[in-house]
Amino acid sequence: MPEFGPGRPLWQTGGWMVVMALCFLISWLVWGADRHSGNLSQGVSALLALVLLGLSAIDLDRYILPDLLTLPLIAGGLVWTGFLGHAPLSSGLGAVVGYGAIAGLAWYWRSQRGEEGIGLGDAKLAAGLGAWLGAASLPHLFLGASASALLVVLGIRITSRGGLPRSFLPFGPFLCLAGWVLWCAPISSGV
């Protein structure tokens, strides 16, 4: 069977991306279209969705989140919130705290286990989402990403008859999904 990325078949990555795209579309149709109704806001939202879906695909395929996309995501969030005049301080704080939370977790895991548990690409992605959503949304972001990842792990465990394969499960797609839902949903307490 042809491999797509490091040990993941093409059909599996494609399946993940179809599910992600459907979740993005449903979130947009239920909440986002009303919340971001202006032409400029809809265009920015579409660009944000494409970047988040692209980051998800790359992370699923290569287990990396490239600076080429994560750093502009941070800058874009800071510029967009500054352009709107919506709490640029919350946006900047969201970027710093988002990065620090994941980087601190990565440092702690590495110091305790002697191996990588989460990468700094995830920290940059959290910084970018923090910039777009604001600092107050970070607990929702981390809770949503962790809960969805846990559900997937439980689903894999159940369908694989109790055994979990010793492989990586990238966290980036779960951050992207939670970030997109918060961008669309009226519960977002950020900018």
In short:
With 191 residues, the chain is mainly alpha-helical. It is built from 7 helices and no strands.
Helix-strand layout with pairing:
Blueprint lengths: L9 H26 L3 H24 L4 H18 L3 H26 L6 H14 L4 H22 L12 H13 L7
Helix pairs in contact: 1-2, 1-7, 2-7, 3-4, 3-5, 4-5, 5-7, 6-7
Main β-sheet: number of strands, strand sense, barrel status? none
Our count of helices gives: 7
Shape descriptor:
globular
Percentage of residues in strands: under 5%
- The average pLDDT value, as a whole number, equals 89
Which segments are poorly predicted (pLDDT under 50) over 5 or more consecutive residues? none
What Rg, in angstroms, do the CA atoms define? 17 Å
Helix content: over 70%
**Which structural class best describes the helix and strand composition?**
mainly alpha
User: What's the order of the H and E elements?
Assistant: HHHHHHH
| Strand runs, count | 0
End-to-end separation: 46 Å
Number of domains: 1
Describe the structure.
This protein is mostly helical. The protein has one domain. It is built from seven helices and no strands. The protein has helices at residues 10-35, 39-62, 67-84, 88-113, 120-133, 138-159, 172-184. Helix 2 (39-62) packs antiparallel against helix 7 and helix 4 runs antiparallel to helix 5. The termini are far apart. The model has no long low-confidence stretch (mean pLDDT 89).
